[in-house]
Amino acid sequence: MTLSDISHGPDWVVWVIFVILLVMTIVFLTGNGGSLIAGYNVATKEEQEKYDRKKLCRTFGCGFVVVDLLILVMALGEAILPAWFAGAAAAIIIIDVIGIWLASEFICRRK
């Protein structure tokens, strides 16, 4: 059983999501897009001062690269990848999110 056997939607939806995430990745990697980070954008100025905004955005951008690559691989290899790859991709994304959270707490905080 392959990914194409378990997918039930039009292929263009995956490509639209990929493009949106790719644009967000580029915005984050350039050090912009702090207003797109949940929690940071609603924090008080004092809370925001505790973080290096540019470093935080780049950390999120690096995390988004992993998600972008997984979506690209799954979109291009839908006919040949086994169905269990969807579960593995979900696990990788969860680990990536935990990594982003840890990096934002320990690397992006101002000393």
- For the secondary structure, the number of strands is 0
The secondary-structure element order is HHHHH
Total tally of structural domains:
1
- Alpha-carbon distance between the termini? 51 Å
Gyration radius from CA atoms, angstroms = 16 Å
Number of distinct helices: 5
Summarize the amount of helix as a percent range: 55-70%
Structural class: mainly alpha
Portion of residues in beta strands equals under 5%
* Poorly predicted spans: none
Tell me, briefly, the overall form: elongated
Let me know the average pLDDT.
92
Instruction: Report the major sheet.
Output: none
Report on the structure:
There is one protein chain. Helix 2 packs antiparallel against helix 4 and helix 4 runs antiparallel to helix 5 (84-106). This protein has five helices and no strands. Helices cover 67% and strands 0% of the residues. It has one domain (3-106). By secondary structure, the protein is mainly α.
